[in-house]
Amino acid sequence: MRIGELARRGGTTTRALRYYESLGLLSARRDANGQREYDEADLRLVREIRSLTGIGFALEDTRPFVQCLRDGHESGDACPASVAVYRRKLAELDECLARLGAARERVRAQLEEAEQRSRPCGR
């Protein structure tokens, strides 16, 4: 398939596909006219990349998943390197949630103090 069809079927743009290629995440074959040619395996890689970036993974984080698929595994997360990325990402998210929880508690406390100050005397 050509780059336009891959973009359409993969839910992305031709520009993104060229960028993936520049990063080594995708490899195009060239036909006799020099046009990029892709197959179903490439579509699978694009869908894996899009799925992971859709939940917040950086493009570089998708590399182990792409390699796992290229190595013939049924799933991009069937390899230890992919599992390691999941673990790292989960730790990052846990840290972010902890920071947000602490910030929320500070805002809640500030709101409570402000409400007490804004009450008229005698109430």
UniProtKB/TrEMBL annotation:
Name all HTH merR-type domain ranges.
1-68
Give yes or no: UniProt keyword Transcription. yes
Q: Which UniProt keywords apply?
A: DNA-binding, Transcription, Transcription regulation
User: What InterPro entries would the database entry show?
Assistant: DNA-bd_dom_put_sf, MerR-type_HTH_dom, MerR_fam
Taxonomic superkingdom = Bacteria
Q: Can you tell me where the transmembrane regions are?
A: none
Give the coiled coil ranges.
none
| UniProt KW DNA-binding keyword | yes
Protein name, as recorded: MerR family transcriptional regulator
Q: From what organism does this protein derive?
A: Saccharothrix xinjiangensis
